[in-house]
Design a protein that fits this description.
Length: 358
């Protein structure tokens, strides 16, 4: 069989396997890598930079809930407990009771003081000093002494009496007049004791003081029942035990208002230039990666964190290093969370300073 035509074989050779094709392909790949990768990097950097515009973010943010420390306004041992840690309570719900017996005794003493004051007022109103009986008697004594003095004077002038009897008659008149002045003074004092003042018009001061004492006793007795000042969840109730001695002003438990959560985000001072109250925000939680809530800027802090620290930083001259400060910003939560929000949770906050919706 005849050999294949060389010309035919030359025409059927693949162009990619032609001499010089492989070097050209390698040159194109090299150019693509040389120019394409920097271009892609520039595009990525530009997209990232664009995504950062119009918003500021921070992970230095924590969930806050208002807390109320609850103690007793009167001292005494706890007689009864109604709640425990972790329990939800409503406003006005009874938390615990203090032994009321000492305060019931104080109330009884106050009632007795009122009765005593009322009896004193009645007795004073019926006394001779107040009614003026002694004044009438003193006036009659003066009239009798003056008549006696007149008789003694007539007898003295006629020489039928002694000097001693005449002097005794004069002394009796003076003594009767002094008795009248004393009776009038006693009447004024009695009326003053029964008088009412401008502070408590129409009521005797003794009775008013006893009534005030009774009101104080009633108030202390009512304070033996301690109620929740607001709705929330009970926490730190370890000291809430029957028989535990309660000291006035010392907290016994804490109520966390878990229905009023907000976020305190600490932004750098350099990030506040475009931030304003009312701007929308997005909140995510480290504990719940799938939870995202909407919020808005409630207000900007009145000072940096260092300004409100227990010991504010004092930078001495010659040892000064500028540190970017952080300002607390309150973020109000607009959405209702599907998960339980716990005070102190770490969050991530993004505030859209251009006002766009998330």
């Amino acid at each position: 069989m005849a050999d294949a035509d060389p010309a035919f074989e030359t025409d059927t050779v693949d162009a990619d396997t032609a001499p010089g094709a492989a070097p050209r392909a390698r040159r194109w790949r090299g150019r693509l890598i040389m120019y394409g990768l920097p271009l892609l990097l520039l595009i990525g950097v530009g997209y990232y930079w664009q995504s950062l515009q119009g918003k500021v973010t921070t992970d230095n943010a924590y969930l806050r809930q208002d807390k109320v420390s609850v103690g007793a306004e009167v001292s005494g041992p706890i007689a009864q407990t109604m709640v425990k840690s972790g329990q939800d309570v409503s406003e006005g719900q009874v938390l615990f009771r203090i032994d009321p017996r000492p305060y019931e005794i104080q109330l009884a003493q106050a009632n007795a003081a009122i009765a005593s004051a009322q009896a004193n007022v009645t007795a004073l109103a019926n006394s001779s000093d107040y009614t003026g009986v002694d004044i009438s008697a003193a006036r009659e004594d003066i009239a009798f002494a003056q008549a006696t003095l007149a008789r003694q004077r007539a007898l003295w002038q006629r020489g039928f009496t002694t000097k001693a009897d005449y002097d005794a008659a004069e002394h009796a008149v003076k003594q009767a007049r002094e008795d009248l002045r004393q009776a009038q003074a006693d009447q004024q004092a009695a009326r003053a004791k029964l008088a009412t003042g401008a502070a408590v018009p129409g009521q005797n001061p003794q009775i008013a003081a006893a009534m005030a004492q009774r009101e104080a006793a009633l108030l202390n007795l009512s304070r033996t029942t301690v109620r929740a000042p607001k709705a929330g969840r009970v926490a730190q109730a370890d000291r809430l035990q029957t028989g535990q001695q309660v000291i006035t002003g010392l907290p016994v438990l804490t109520i966390v208002a878990n229905r009023q959560s907000y976020v305190e985000a600490n932004f750098k001072e350099t990030e506040l230039a475009d931030m304003q109250v009312g701007q929308p925000a997005k909140i995510t939680f480290d504990a719940y990666p799938d939870l995202e809530l909407k919020g808005h800027v409630a207000y900007l802090g009145a000072g940096t964190g260092s300004e409100f620290s227990v010991i504010p930083a004092q930078n001495a001259t010659g040892n000064w290093v500028k540190v970017t400060q952080r300002v607390p910003v309150r973020i109000a939560i607009d959405d209702k969370s599907s998960r339980q929000l716990i005070a102190g949770m770490s969050t991530h906050v993004t505030v859209y300073t251009d006002g766009r919706k998330r």
